[in-house]
Structure formats: structure tokens, C-alpha cells
Amino acid sequence: MAEFTAADLRGSRFEHVDLSGSELRDVDLSGARFRGVDLRGATMRGVELVGVDIHGEIENLTINGVDVGPLVQAELDRRHPDRARMRPTDPAGFREAWDVLERLWGGTVERAGRLRPELLHESVDGEWSFIETLRHLVFATDAWIGRAVLGDPSPWDPLDLPWDEMPDTPGVPRDREARPALDAVLALRRDRMSTVRQVIEGLTPESLDGHTEPVEGPGWPRPRSYPIRECLLVVLNEEWEHRLYAERDLAVLEARGAGSG
């Protein structure tokens, strides 16, 4: 166990570090950036949260005695009326949710297509570029539909892009240097979205309540059985959230493009 007392660690970088159970007392975290951080069960007292931006899975978060999770969810549903459709309970609901995603992504892709091609490889505030976002969604589909639901132990395309914190896994590509054209990535996306559509169109109440057969070999998700419903909900959530990220960053890229003219 390390102990830091009256230490100046400004500008330090902690990556793949286990700080579970640590105690932070009279610590200055102003300007700190957290990504892929597990804060489950964390307790904070005497905290100043001013000008803080938190984006992630918020559940059972109590601030000054108030569980803010339901308040956040309700506000997000109000801002995005289609969001509630991403929590379907039956096959018809999943088909409706996928219809919504196809429609919304169509508009986002059309918006991106109006930008200069090089801007689609640019990062905004350290986030994935638009092209990388599409590549990650190909990975998510390959993982949760191709591997988990359809049973292909290695469904990956060389352009698949796992999330940054995922450990390197034999056989799973992670080429951060690739710069494919938009059309090439969209062709992959159309193929994977068509696969999701086929799976959803074939759903019955019985199959939706079923479980996957475990696959062998390294990859993601891990080789065990998963509820079909859970796999599909993961895909819906990935598609919904990453489109919002893309729309947010496209606004910045549009401003960059206009400014360079």
C-alpha cells in the first residue's frame, strides 16, 4: 500500500491502476479528467462539485440526500422523446427501436457527409473521431450480435475498434492508426446494421427471453451464456449514446470547417 502525504502529484497520469478502497482526504482534483473509471460504492463527503461535467451510467447516485439518477433519466427522456423507445420489452418494441435508430443515424451520416473528409478523422476534446465512432459500433455489433447471439467466435473485421480501456485480446483488432474512407466504414456499418435488423425481425417472445450459447476462444464478450434481451439492449444503448456523442462533436467540426474557409 502506497501512502502520499503532502505530495505534489500535479499532472500525474494513472492508467490501468487499482485504487479501490483508497482514501482521499484534503485532495485537490481540480481540472482532473476521469475516463473509464469505476466509482461504484464510492463515498464523498465535504465535496465541492462546481462546474463538473459527468457523463456515464448514473444509478443510485445520492447527492445531499437526493437520489438524482431518476431525475437525470427523466430529463434525458424529456430532451430526447425517442430515448424511452430504447428500453423495449417485447419484439415489436425492439423493431420500433431499431427503426428509430436507423432513421436517426441516417440523418447523422448525411450531416457528416457534408464535412471535408479529413475532418471526419479529427478528435474533439480527446474523444473518438466520427470515423472511429462508426468503427466502434461495428465492433459492438460484432461482439454482441455476431459473437454472442449468432455464435461466431471471431466475427471481427480489421477495422473493428474496441473501447480504449479494453485489454488487448488475441485475435481482436485494434488499429488506431487506420484512416479508412467514410464510404468504406459505411459499407461495414450497413452490413452490420442489416444483421441486427435480421435478428430483430426474427424475434419471438420465446427467443427474446432465451439465452445465448457460450462461444469458445478469446474475444468479447467473454465466453459464457447471456440473455438475448441483454445483448440486444447493449446494442441499442451503444447506438443511441454514440450517435449523441457524434452529433455533439459534429457541431464542433462544422465550426472548424467554416472557420477554415
From TrEMBL:
Protein name as catalogued: Pentapeptide repeat-containing protein
Domain DinB-like, first and last residues per copy: 101-245
InterPro entries: 5peptide_repeat (IPR001646), DinB-like (IPR024775), DinB/YfiT-like (IPR034660)
Highest taxon listed in the record's lineage: Bacteria
Pfam families the UniProt entry points to: DinB_2 (PF12867), Pentapeptide (PF00805)
SUPFAM superfamilies cross-referenced by the UniProt entry: DinB/YfiT-like putative metalloenzymes, Pentapeptide repeat-like
